[in-house]
Amino acid sequence: MIPTEIIHQKKLGKSLDTKELRKFLDAYHEGDVTDYQMSAFLMAVCLNGMNFEETYTLMDTMLQSGNKLAWPELEEGAVGDKHSTGGIGDKTSFLILPMCISEGVKMPMMAGRGLGHTGGTIDKIESLSGVQTRVGEHTAKKWMQEIGGMLLGQSTEIAPLDYRLYHLRDVTATVESIPLITASILSKKIAEGLKHLVMDVKTGSGAFLAKTSEAQEFAKIAKEVGLRAGLNVSCAITNMDEPLGRNAGNAVELAEVLELLEGNIGFAPDTYELSLELSAKLVQMCKPDRNLDEIKQTIRTKTDSGEHLECFRKLFANQGVSLVELDQLKEKLSKLKQKPLIAQSSGFIESWNTRSLGLAILALGGGRKKADESIDHWVGLTEIKKVGEEVHKGETLCMVSYRDDATLGDAMKILSTSCSLSSAKQSPKPLIHEWI
Q: What one-character-per-residue DSSP string does 286-340 give?
């Protein structure tokens, strides 16, 4: 196996021998292929793609590079998870965890950090000090039995090859690739020891898979790769032509989650409804004898009663979060410096360039430009107007929470062209386009 020849073949768009591809990937994992060689390979894949056998080999090599969890002591078929391909304002994991756990689904959720212009679930929960997102297998099994689930970051023990590639893709503009996204997600999820996986496949201006046809292609490949590996995958193609909910960032998204769990569904009904739909689907996959409408009604009732908020608090207190700090989250956010993005004319919100909102958060310091860079968990966007809402000249389109005036200038420049208005009211697109 000659690394430069592997890169050259993929640069020309040729299919690789899967044994040679596996050797190349193993060599990178062992340090015999450099980061700059792998960066060139990843760019070639982004430009020329991979066939199914290459994609499966990439996924399986990532999977075999580390440990795999198993849950023989738990009910057969009751272990499931959810994953999103990434978007702006996408905080559904924090709602889905308590919703599904309350319905008896065991969830060893492994989530990621920010990738490209999108936010990361682990970055969001790390807005709160003390949270443990890396634990040993013994502790994970204890939490699964006693609490019903957890939210963990990827460790160097689970799919460590993906761990390295994930960070490399983030800083080399090699995120938007169906084979790379497929292999990265499924290697981690299969390593979790799952039986069932619901995938939220984002499409639109804020998604990595901007075209609906790309999202559909990804969903079909993900289902096929999962099937070969023994994982039942169901994919929802969902709208990311505007941010999900009212807040986008890290800590500001947790504040939105708390509003919803406290019963204020009207604060961000789209965030709640999507979380409900994904949760109900996963519960039914794990417990096929239950009716989908009955599951949704039960979930709504438990939100209203406060059961999901209690489960959320129990989950993260168990992982080291101070409940006092959690209770003071919204108050702390209210003390940040804020600047409104002002409408320059009157009309109805027609669309957002959602990717631009993610880039603005990145400019504020809420995301990474280098793999080892720290982030500011407290910056972000709030009070984001939704498609179809009316605004008048001089009114606020969204609020920008910031710390540094220099970063604010960069963010406001990006945001200045991010929103389009029309004279006629637009109907928002459906949250879920289709299930695959």
A: HSTTS-HHHHHHHHHHHHHHTHHHHHHHHHHHHTT--HHHHHTHHHHHHTSEEEE
Q: 119 pLDDT exceeds 80?
A: no
Q: Give residue 72's pLDDT band: very low, low, confident or very high (50, 70, 90).
A: confident
Based on the residue annotation, tell me whether 289 is a catalytic residue of this protein: no
Quick one: fold of 3-49? 1.20.970
Decide: 360 and 372 in contact? Cβ < 8 Å.
no
- Among candidate residues 184, 187, 234, 356, the one labeled active-site is 184
153-169 exposure pattern, b = at least 16 Cβ within 10 A, e = fewer: bbbebbbbbbbbbbbbb
Active-site residue (options: 23, 29, 82, 83): 83
CA distance 82 to 66: 21
Average pLDDT for residues 370-386, to the nearest whole number? 88
CA atoms in the 13 A half-sphere facing the CB of 14: 10
For the question of residue 405 being annotated catalytic, the response is no
Write down the pTM of the prediction: 0.91
- Predicted pLDDT of residue 74: 82
pLDDT at residue 170 in the model: 80
Active-site entry in 60, 90, 123, 162:
162
**Catalytic residue check, 169:** yes
Catalytic residue among 23, 124, 188, 313: 188
Residue 280's identity, in one-letter code, is A
Choices 2.30.110.10, 3.40.50.2300, 3.40.50.720, 3.90.1170.30: CATH for 335-422: 3.90.1170.30
CATH topology (fold) of 80-327? Pyrimidine Nucleoside Phosphorylase; Chain A, domain 2 (3.40.1030)
Is 83 one of the catalytic residues? yes
For residue 84, which amino acid is it?
S
